[in-house]
Amino acid sequence: MAIRPTIARARRSRLRLRVLIRWLWYFESSEISHDEFLLRAVPNTAHYIEQAMGHWTVAPANFQPDAKRDQDGTSFFREDFCTPKRVAAECKHPAGAWVVRLRVAEMLGACPDLQLDVIPDPDLNGLPGHAIPPMLKYVSGRPKAEKRRIKDCSQGLARLASKGICYIPPGLR
Amino acid sequence: MAAIASGIWTNLPQVTAAPETITSGTVPTEWWHRRRDLLEIRKYQDGWNGFGADAPDPKMVDAAISFLHVLERRGDTPPMRVTLSPDGLVAMEWQGDGGYWQAEIVSEREVEWMRVAPGRPTEFHTELLTLRCRDKTPEFDWQFDQQSRAPGVVASGFAY
After folding, report:
1. Domain count for chain B
2. Residue B142 domain-assigned (yes or no)
3. Domain presence at residue B80
4. ipTM over 0.85
5. Beta strands in A73-148 (DSSP E)
6. B62: phi then psi, degrees, rounded to nearest 5
């Protein structure tokens, strides 16, 4: 009998060595473990990627919530469900996108003041493996202290991301 | 507090890579590049980041250009990057000695500094955006409180 994912469980993970044992029961709605990697696209522009910025090659602005897209949290994609190439293709920037890879445990450690958590947020109309940190959602009129915590978290994530560039647009390699 | 007031927020790192000449009249300076970056940002349309972000407010970009002039006039190191966040805020960034500095133009009259140094908690402070081109020292909001100066005063003869 074929096992079909229900809407609640959404799509199954990619078949990789890392997930081999649990693959049959591993859906994009499954809880995110701390040893997972998340992917995020970075538009290919000097405002967002600049080698001269060293540890902050990826700009913190890339992790700040967008008023339009991030009402529930900044978007990431679980590497167990989606490839860097697909994440890059999702970005419609004319110059393409880079993709960075962050380990969940390190993400949480980079934002100690924010009690960051990452939860699955499957979107059947989008790429598989969509995940969000709800604390990084866009809220209009946040108190200044909270905005500062988010800015500090963004620079922490940018620092991590700068070490984890995993996809470079064709032509820039 | 005294240490901050004495200019800790503007003790930006020295650029370790050889900067383009600042003396030549023909070779663009780092300041010129950053102004050009900001003017480019000013032209951004909706969807500039490939994810549908709104176009930036030209007034905010103009405020950033003004602040760039302030930094240049008071002899600071030119920013190494300017960025635009998805919610339309322009920021200038520096890095060096393991640290990171960011000046974000949060309104037409206010700049928020963030300083990240290894082994220390991240520090924030705000600076009122003024265009007093002869001033060499920063003007912070607490100094305005003490001196009862109106923010946003544009010095005569200042132009960009």
Report:
1. 1
2. yes
3. yes
4. no
5. 76-78, 97-103, 119-120, 130-132
6. -60, -40
Residues 6+ apart with CB under 8 A from B121: none
Cβ contact B95–A53 (<8 Å): yes
Phi, psi for residue A103 in degrees, rounded to 5: -80, 135
Tally of domains in chain A: 1
Residue B15 lies in a domain: no
Which residue of chain B comes nearest to A88, CA vs CA? Answer: B50
Query: What does the alpha-carbon distance between residue A95 and residue A84 come to, in Å, rounded to a whole number?
Result: 16
In a domain, A22, yes or no: no
Q: Is residue A49 part of a domain?
A: yes
**Do B4 and B125 form a contact (C-beta atoms < 8 A)?**
yes
Q: Provide the domain limits for residue A117.
A: 33-167
| Closest-CA residue of chain B to A47 | B83
Q: Quote the pTM value.
A: 0.79
In a domain, A1, yes or no: no
Residue A22 has what pLDDT?
80
What does R_g of chain B's alpha carbons equal in angstroms?
16
Which structural domain, as residue segments, surrounds residue B75?
2-7+29-147
B154 in a structural domain = no
- Gap from A6 CA to chain B (nearest CA, Å): 29
B91-143 pLDDT per residue, tens: 999 999 899 999 999 999 999 999 999 889 999 999 998 755 444 444 444 44
> B54 to chain A: which residues are within 8 Å by CB?
67-68
Q: Is A54–B52 a contact, with Cβ atoms under 8 angstroms apart?
A: no
d(CA A97, CA B51): 11
